[in-house]
Amino acid sequence: MLDLYKLEIFVRVVEEGSFSAAAERLLMTQSGVSQHIQDLERSLGTALFVRSSRGVSLTAAGKTLRDYTLRILALVAEAEAAVTDVTHLAAGRVTVGATPGVSIYVLAEWVQSFAALYPNLTVQMQTEITPRIVDGLLAARLDIGFVEGELAPSLAARVEVRVLEELEQFVVVGRKHPFWARDQVELSELNDQRMIMRQPESQTRIWLDAQLAAQGVRPRVGAEFDALESIKRAVMAAPALAILPAYAVQDEVAYGQLRALPLVGRPLQRSLKFIWCKRRHFSPVTRTFLRHLAARFPPLS
Fold it and tell me: Thinking of the domain 166-269, which architecture would CATH place it in?
Protein backbone atom coordinates (compact mmCIF):
# COMPACT_ATOMS: atom_id res chain seq x y z
CA MET A 1 0.00 0.00 0.00
CA LEU A 2 1.22 3.50 -0.79
CA ASP A 3 2.67 5.40 2.16
CA LEU A 4 1.17 8.91 2.42
CA TYR A 5 4.32 10.32 4.00
CA LYS A 6 6.48 9.00 1.18
CA LEU A 7 4.06 10.46 -1.34
CA GLU A 8 4.43 13.88 0.28
CA ILE A 9 8.22 13.58 0.01
CA PHE A 10 7.84 12.45 -3.61
CA VAL A 11 5.79 15.55 -4.46
CA ARG A 12 8.32 17.83 -2.78
CA VAL A 13 11.13 16.31 -4.87
CA VAL A 14 8.99 16.91 -7.96
CA GLU A 15 8.44 20.53 -6.96
CA GLU A 16 12.06 21.26 -6.11
CA GLY A 17 13.64 19.33 -8.97
CA SER A 18 16.34 17.70 -6.86
CA PHE A 19 16.79 15.55 -3.76
CA SER A 20 19.07 18.12 -2.12
CA ALA A 21 16.62 21.01 -2.55
CA ALA A 22 13.74 18.85 -1.31
CA ALA A 23 15.80 17.78 1.70
CA GLU A 24 16.53 21.41 2.54
CA ARG A 25 12.85 22.34 2.36
CA LEU A 26 11.81 19.30 4.41
CA LEU A 27 14.59 19.78 6.99
CA MET A 28 15.84 16.28 6.21
CA THR A 29 19.14 14.86 5.03
CA GLN A 30 19.58 14.25 1.33
CA SER A 31 20.27 10.59 2.03
CA GLY A 32 17.01 10.37 3.97
CA VAL A 33 14.99 11.78 1.08
CA SER A 34 16.81 9.49 -1.37
CA GLN A 35 16.05 6.46 0.79
CA HIS A 36 12.32 7.25 0.93
CA ILE A 37 12.18 7.62 -2.86
CA GLN A 38 14.10 4.37 -3.36
CA ASP A 39 11.67 2.59 -1.02
CA LEU A 40 8.74 4.00 -2.98
CA GLU A 41 10.25 2.92 -6.31
CA ARG A 42 11.01 -0.53 -4.91
CA SER A 43 7.45 -0.99 -3.65
CA LEU A 44 6.08 -0.01 -7.08
CA GLY A 45 8.63 -1.94 -9.10
CA THR A 46 9.41 1.02 -11.34
CA ALA A 47 11.66 4.07 -11.54
CA LEU A 48 9.98 7.39 -10.81
CA PHE A 49 12.87 9.73 -11.57
CA VAL A 50 15.67 10.05 -14.08
CA ARG A 51 18.74 11.14 -12.10
CA SER A 52 21.36 13.48 -13.55
CA SER A 53 24.01 15.90 -12.32
CA ARG A 54 21.54 18.76 -12.88
CA GLY A 55 18.78 17.25 -10.75
CA VAL A 56 15.93 14.85 -11.42
CA SER A 57 13.11 14.60 -13.94
CA LEU A 58 10.04 12.38 -13.93
CA THR A 59 9.74 9.15 -15.85
CA ALA A 60 6.42 8.30 -17.49
CA ALA A 61 5.48 6.31 -14.36
CA GLY A 62 6.58 9.24 -12.20
CA LYS A 63 4.30 11.63 -14.10
CA THR A 64 1.37 9.27 -13.59
CA LEU A 65 2.09 8.95 -9.89
CA ARG A 66 2.45 12.72 -9.57
CA ASP A 67 -1.03 13.28 -11.01
CA TYR A 68 -2.58 10.69 -8.70
CA THR A 69 -0.64 11.95 -5.68
CA LEU A 70 -1.86 15.52 -6.12
CA ARG A 71 -5.43 14.23 -6.25
CA ILE A 72 -4.84 12.01 -3.21
CA LEU A 73 -3.38 14.85 -1.12
CA ALA A 74 -6.21 17.17 -2.14
CA LEU A 75 -8.77 14.54 -1.15
CA VAL A 76 -7.04 13.96 2.21
CA ALA A 77 -7.13 17.72 2.92
CA GLU A 78 -10.79 17.87 1.91
CA ALA A 79 -11.67 14.95 4.18
CA GLU A 80 -9.78 16.46 7.09
CA ALA A 81 -11.55 19.80 6.65
CA ALA A 82 -14.95 18.10 6.39
CA VAL A 83 -14.77 16.16 9.65
CA THR A 84 -12.48 18.16 11.94
CA ASP A 85 -14.09 20.17 14.74
CA VAL A 86 -11.37 22.59 15.82
CA THR A 87 -13.21 23.48 19.03
CA HIS A 88 -12.41 20.01 20.35
CA LEU A 89 -8.77 19.88 19.28
CA ALA A 90 -6.31 19.72 22.16
CA ALA A 91 -3.97 21.97 20.18
CA GLY A 92 -3.53 23.44 16.72
CA ARG A 93 -1.47 26.08 14.98
CA VAL A 94 -1.56 28.36 11.96
CA THR A 95 1.65 30.17 11.01
CA VAL A 96 1.08 33.56 9.39
CA GLY A 97 3.60 35.76 7.63
CA ALA A 98 2.88 39.49 7.33
CA THR A 99 4.71 42.63 6.34
CA PRO A 100 5.52 44.97 9.26
CA GLY A 101 2.61 47.42 9.19
CA VAL A 102 0.05 44.70 8.54
CA SER A 103 1.23 42.45 11.37
CA ILE A 104 1.35 45.24 13.95
CA TYR A 105 -1.61 47.43 13.09
CA VAL A 106 -4.04 45.26 11.11
CA LEU A 107 -3.80 41.64 12.23
CA ALA A 108 -2.75 41.87 15.88
CA GLU A 109 -6.25 42.70 17.13
CA TRP A 110 -7.79 39.88 15.08
CA VAL A 111 -5.24 37.39 16.33
CA GLN A 112 -6.23 38.26 19.89
CA SER A 113 -9.96 37.96 19.19
CA PHE A 114 -9.32 34.59 17.51
CA ALA A 115 -7.41 33.43 20.59
CA ALA A 116 -10.35 34.41 22.78
CA LEU A 117 -12.71 32.27 20.67
CA TYR A 118 -10.31 29.33 20.30
CA PRO A 119 -7.98 29.25 23.32
CA ASN A 120 -6.72 25.81 22.30
CA LEU A 121 -5.41 27.11 18.96
CA THR A 122 -2.29 29.18 18.33
CA VAL A 123 -1.63 31.82 15.69
CA GLN A 124 2.10 32.21 15.20
CA MET A 125 2.75 35.59 13.57
CA GLN A 126 6.02 36.18 11.74
CA THR A 127 6.87 39.68 10.53
CA GLU A 128 8.93 39.63 7.34
CA ILE A 129 9.48 41.43 4.07
CA THR A 130 7.47 40.22 1.07
CA PRO A 131 10.12 38.02 -0.66
CA ARG A 132 10.80 36.14 2.56
CA ILE A 133 7.09 35.58 3.09
CA VAL A 134 6.84 34.04 -0.39
CA ASP A 135 9.86 31.83 0.34
CA GLY A 136 8.27 30.78 3.64
CA LEU A 137 5.04 29.80 1.91
CA LEU A 138 6.85 27.75 -0.73
CA ALA A 139 8.95 26.02 1.91
CA ALA A 140 5.85 25.30 4.04
CA ARG A 141 7.33 27.29 6.94
CA LEU A 142 4.30 29.58 6.65
CA ASP A 143 0.69 28.57 6.06
CA ILE A 144 -0.59 31.91 4.72
CA GLY A 145 0.68 35.44 4.16
CA PHE A 146 -0.55 39.04 4.16
CA VAL A 147 1.45 41.70 2.35
CA GLU A 148 0.95 45.37 1.65
CA GLY A 149 1.89 46.57 -1.76
CA GLU A 150 3.42 45.08 -4.84
CA LEU A 151 4.56 41.58 -5.71
CA ALA A 152 7.29 41.36 -8.31
CA PRO A 153 6.14 39.24 -11.29
CA SER A 154 8.64 36.54 -10.37
CA LEU A 155 7.07 36.28 -6.90
CA ALA A 156 3.45 36.64 -8.00
CA ALA A 157 3.88 33.70 -10.40
CA ARG A 158 4.77 31.42 -7.49
CA VAL A 159 1.79 32.09 -5.22
CA GLU A 160 -1.93 32.67 -5.32
CA VAL A 161 -2.97 36.28 -4.65
CA ARG A 162 -6.24 37.82 -3.52
CA VAL A 163 -6.62 41.58 -3.00
CA LEU A 164 -8.41 42.32 0.27
CA GLU A 165 -8.66 46.10 0.12
CA GLU A 166 -7.07 49.24 -1.27
CA LEU A 167 -5.08 51.33 1.21
CA GLU A 168 -4.93 55.06 0.67
CA GLN A 169 -1.65 56.70 1.65
CA PHE A 170 -1.80 59.96 3.60
CA VAL A 171 0.56 62.85 4.30
CA VAL A 172 1.27 62.51 8.03
CA VAL A 173 2.48 65.59 9.93
CA GLY A 174 3.04 66.68 13.52
CA ARG A 175 2.19 69.97 15.20
CA LYS A 176 5.51 71.56 14.17
CA HIS A 177 4.82 71.19 10.46
CA PRO A 178 3.30 74.08 8.41
CA PHE A 179 0.75 71.63 6.97
CA TRP A 180 -0.77 70.99 10.43
CA ALA A 181 -3.79 73.25 9.85
CA ARG A 182 -4.41 72.02 6.31
CA ASP A 183 -7.30 69.80 5.22
CA GLN A 184 -5.55 68.29 2.20
CA VAL A 185 -2.33 68.49 0.22
CA GLU A 186 -1.45 68.52 -3.46
CA LEU A 187 1.13 65.92 -4.44
CA SER A 188 3.27 68.62 -6.06
CA GLU A 189 3.54 70.37 -2.68
CA LEU A 190 5.70 67.53 -1.42
CA ASN A 191 8.52 68.69 -3.66
CA ASP A 192 11.54 69.69 -1.53
CA GLN A 193 9.65 68.86 1.68
CA ARG A 194 11.67 67.15 4.42
CA MET A 195 10.39 63.59 4.57
CA ILE A 196 10.94 60.73 7.03
CA MET A 197 11.13 57.50 5.05
CA ARG A 198 11.68 53.76 5.26
CA GLN A 199 15.13 52.34 4.57
CA PRO A 200 16.13 52.33 0.86
CA GLU A 201 15.93 48.54 0.37
CA SER A 202 12.37 48.17 1.69
CA GLN A 203 9.56 47.47 -0.78
CA THR A 204 7.62 50.45 0.61
CA ARG A 205 10.51 52.83 -0.03
CA ILE A 206 11.13 51.46 -3.53
CA TRP A 207 7.45 51.90 -4.34
CA LEU A 208 7.20 55.41 -2.91
CA ASP A 209 10.37 56.62 -4.64
CA ALA A 210 9.00 55.38 -7.96
CA GLN A 211 5.59 56.98 -7.44
CA LEU A 212 7.04 60.37 -6.51
CA ALA A 213 9.62 60.32 -9.30
CA ALA A 214 6.90 59.54 -11.86
CA GLN A 215 5.16 62.78 -10.80
CA GLY A 216 8.36 64.82 -10.79
CA VAL A 217 8.30 65.16 -6.99
CA ARG A 218 11.67 65.23 -5.24
CA PRO A 219 11.41 65.43 -1.44
CA ARG A 220 14.40 65.85 0.86
CA VAL A 221 15.11 62.72 2.89
CA GLY A 222 15.35 63.87 6.48
CA ALA A 223 15.85 60.44 8.05
CA GLU A 224 15.39 56.75 7.26
CA PHE A 225 14.01 54.15 9.67
CA ASP A 226 13.13 50.47 9.43
CA ALA A 227 10.21 50.73 11.87
CA LEU A 228 6.94 52.63 11.59
CA GLU A 229 6.99 53.62 15.26
CA SER A 230 10.32 55.37 14.74
CA ILE A 231 8.97 57.20 11.69
CA LYS A 232 5.95 58.43 13.64
CA ARG A 233 8.04 59.65 16.57
CA ALA A 234 10.37 61.50 14.22
CA VAL A 235 7.42 63.25 12.55
CA MET A 236 6.06 64.29 15.96
CA ALA A 237 9.40 65.76 16.95
CA ALA A 238 10.37 67.67 13.81
CA PRO A 239 8.84 69.81 11.02
CA ALA A 240 8.94 66.83 8.67
CA LEU A 241 6.31 64.62 7.07
CA ALA A 242 5.82 60.97 6.17
CA ILE A 243 3.62 59.05 3.76
CA LEU A 244 1.72 56.37 5.67
CA PRO A 245 -1.58 54.45 5.54
CA ALA A 246 -4.34 55.54 7.91
CA TYR A 247 -4.21 52.33 9.95
CA ALA A 248 -0.65 53.10 11.08
CA VAL A 249 -1.54 56.44 12.71
CA GLN A 250 -5.15 56.08 13.82
CA ASP A 251 -4.33 56.22 17.55
CA GLU A 252 -2.00 59.23 17.22
CA VAL A 253 -4.57 61.07 15.11
CA ALA A 254 -7.28 60.33 17.70
CA TYR A 255 -5.07 61.78 20.46
CA GLY A 256 -4.18 64.87 18.42
CA GLN A 257 -0.50 63.96 18.12
CA LEU A 258 -0.50 63.59 14.35
CA ARG A 259 -2.67 64.54 11.41
CA ALA A 260 -3.27 62.34 8.35
CA LEU A 261 -3.97 64.64 5.40
CA PRO A 262 -5.41 63.24 2.19
CA LEU A 263 -3.66 63.91 -1.08
CA VAL A 264 -5.86 65.60 -3.70
CA GLY A 265 -7.05 62.97 -6.17
CA ARG A 266 -5.85 60.11 -3.93
CA PRO A 267 -2.82 59.42 -6.16
CA LEU A 268 -1.04 57.04 -3.79
CA GLN A 269 -2.78 53.70 -3.30
CA ARG A 270 -1.44 50.30 -2.27
CA SER A 271 -3.22 46.96 -1.99
CA LEU A 272 -3.46 44.69 1.02
CA LYS A 273 -3.08 41.17 -0.37
CA PHE A 274 -3.67 37.68 0.96
CA ILE A 275 -1.20 35.18 -0.51
CA TRP A 276 -0.79 31.44 -0.23
CA CYS A 277 1.04 28.61 -1.95
CA LYS A 278 -1.06 27.22 -4.78
CA ARG A 279 0.36 23.74 -4.16
CA ARG A 280 -0.62 23.60 -0.49
CA HIS A 281 -3.96 22.81 1.13
CA PHE A 282 -5.35 24.74 4.08
CA SER A 283 -5.52 22.85 7.35
CA PRO A 284 -8.74 22.99 9.40
CA VAL A 285 -7.07 25.48 11.77
CA THR A 286 -6.00 27.71 8.89
CA ARG A 287 -9.51 27.58 7.42
CA THR A 288 -11.00 28.53 10.79
CA PHE A 289 -8.64 31.50 11.11
CA LEU A 290 -9.53 32.70 7.61
CA ARG A 291 -13.25 32.44 8.36
CA HIS A 292 -12.63 34.57 11.45
CA LEU A 293 -10.78 37.19 9.39
CA ALA A 294 -13.60 37.24 6.82
CA ALA A 295 -15.58 39.46 9.23
CA ARG A 296 -12.91 42.11 8.58
CA PHE A 297 -12.06 41.17 4.99
CA PRO A 298 -15.12 39.86 3.09
CA PRO A 299 -13.02 38.64 0.10
CA LEU A 300 -11.80 35.84 2.39
CA SER A 301 -15.32 34.42 2.69
Answer: 3-Layer(aba) Sandwich (3.40)
